[in-house]
């Protein structure tokens, strides 16, 4: 597979940023984030004759609501790449992603640029499109990144159906209120842990078929469960149990273990923060399995682990924290 960049454009917001919104401080949590970037790929079995013109316009309209409120905004915009993918069909690429997983980064542009966000439209030679989006982790967590992508998709849909309307209820207007958590000068001096470059790392992909996940949910459900287990809980329980088996074979006994998940703190903050708050605001939900609680050294049943996970998630939804506690939780 060969990815050739056909053109690179700098997409500016569709309207200039008001002077009062040109400078906004990052929240203390955002300030200590690593300058890493998150990639997202979208696959479309579409006509490869698209030139990217409509996508450029959509990015510009969506960006006016997001980029126009960021730090030291100079309206430079974001990078938009149009690329041609040669010597590979999209269907073949999708069927061989396990073998080609190291090449996925080539489909999300801006890897070595300073741009806050970049978009790359990859048109496969024999039909099909992959759109890659790369965003800065200092300005987005997974939740707010999803909000931006939803806003972009809504902008595209609405503008092509009835023309863009800033007041349309489907459009997401972001807010940047996370700086109110604590003033930056209240943050203790912190040093980031150095990132260790390791060329020996291995990237793998684990695929769970939708039908098999549904079957696992059905056979592992217990009447005592307060609700149907989610797909995340089912898959987590399966992986967790498999890792327990590996640990037992290695150490000769079943050991206490933890499963952790990141959760969005926005709905759990008191006073509450808007759903559309941009930035980093997450916490961890930890589920503990204690080996000493079991008489035998057999692996726990899948439904037992799902019960533990469900209990942890339900307790986290009932727990509300102050903004100061949220910051303290992140720092520890």
List keywords for this structure.
alpha/beta; two-stranded antiparallel ribbon; 332 residues; 9 helices; five-stranded mixed β-sheet; 32% helix
Summarize the helix and strand pattern as letters.
EHEHEHHEEHHHEEEHEH
End-to-end Cα distance, whole Å, is 44 Å
| Low-pLDDT stretches | 66-72
Strands, count:
9
Largest sheet: 5 strands, mixed
What is the overall pLDDT average?
Answer: 76
Main-sheet strand order equals 1-3-4-5-2
Overall 3D geometry? Answer: globular
**Cα-atom radius of gyration:** 23 Å
Per DSSP, what share of the residues sits in E-state strands of 2 or more residues? 15-25%
The number of helical elements comes to 9
Structural class: alpha/beta
Helix content: 25-40%
Task: Report what the structure shows.
The chain has nine helices and nine strands. It is of the alpha/beta class and 332 residues long. Strands 1-3-4-5-2 form a five-stranded mixed sheet. Helix 2 packs across helix 5 and helix 7 packs across helix 8. The longest helix is centred in the last third of the chain and has 21 residues. The radius of gyration is 23 Å and the shape is globular. About 2% of the residues have low confidence.
